[in-house]
Amino acid sequence: MHQFFSGPLTVEKIPVTVNNLPPELRGLKITQLSDFHYDGVKLSEELLAEAIRTSNSMNPDLVVLTGDFVTYEPDPIHDLVKRLKRLESRRGIYAVLGNHDLYYPTTKFIVTQALTDIGIQVLWNQVSYPLGKGLALVGLPDFWSPDFNPASVFNDLDEQVPRIVLSHQPDSAEVLQQWRVDLQLSGHTHGGQIVLPELGPLIAYQERAILATPPWLRQWIPLLQRKCDRVVKHWEWSAGLYQLNHNRLYVNRGLGTYPPGRLFCPPELTAITLV
Q1: Distance from C-alpha of 192 to C-alpha of 149, rounded to nearest angstrom
Q2: Which of 161-165, 190-194, 229-233 shows the lowest mean pLDDT across its residues?
Q3: Which PANTHER family does this UniProt record tie to the protein (predicted)?
Q4: What is the rounded CA–CA span in Å between residue 86 and residue 229?
Q5: pLDDT band at 3, cuts 50/70/90?
Q6: Which residue, 30, 11, 12, is CA-closest to 21?
């Protein structure tokens, strides 16, 4: 399987303080993987296997997968789930879908069914309690989906109950500030893929970069095409942990890589500990 340059897998270890967390859940371990784009090009078998091995070595209580399992055609999901079935978790594996998992009218059903068949629960405007009633796990459709309806879930949640929210696109954090979100886990941005040291993602300087890049080269660099300004609004939330008023957002850099590759933005497995 060919892969564009991505660099080695990086593990980001993130302690997150959660108010009213039941004592028995302190120290809870969650691993997050995102943005596989498993299509024979954008993710190597070696990197995927390493990410699964590394997650298993941490003996997580929960594993969460935050979308974009495929890129365009849905069929690669059948090979991907053969790999994902090796993931181990004490209390289950949960997923939400990304925008690419909805690319064709049939993609949502095919991807959801394949994940469900190996025991991964796909949440779609749903709440689950894999660790008991002391911690809610909320899963939302992709932010661009017409089915994105957080009110249908949050309005029925007890405000005193801590909650972790899986939402593929970090832009959804802007809307979700009207509810309590102890930790939102997102992906989608790939961290910007090309990051300028001390300055952040190149895409944040897109217009200046477009003007400075010869047209013949620009056409081969997706991040220098103006359509990228529609990928996400808040590029300032491209990777890492953010405090948004009373809520927290964590954005995973993903595993898959678009051309021309990653620079100062390695693929990521996130290891979260609740305290």
Answers
A1: 27
A2: 229-233
A3: TRANSMEMBRANE PROTEIN WITH METALLOPHOSPHOESTERASE DOMAIN (PTHR31302:SF0), TRANSMEMBRANE PROTEIN WITH METALLOPHOSPHOESTERASE DOMAIN-RELATED (PTHR31302)
A4: 36
A5: low
A6: 30
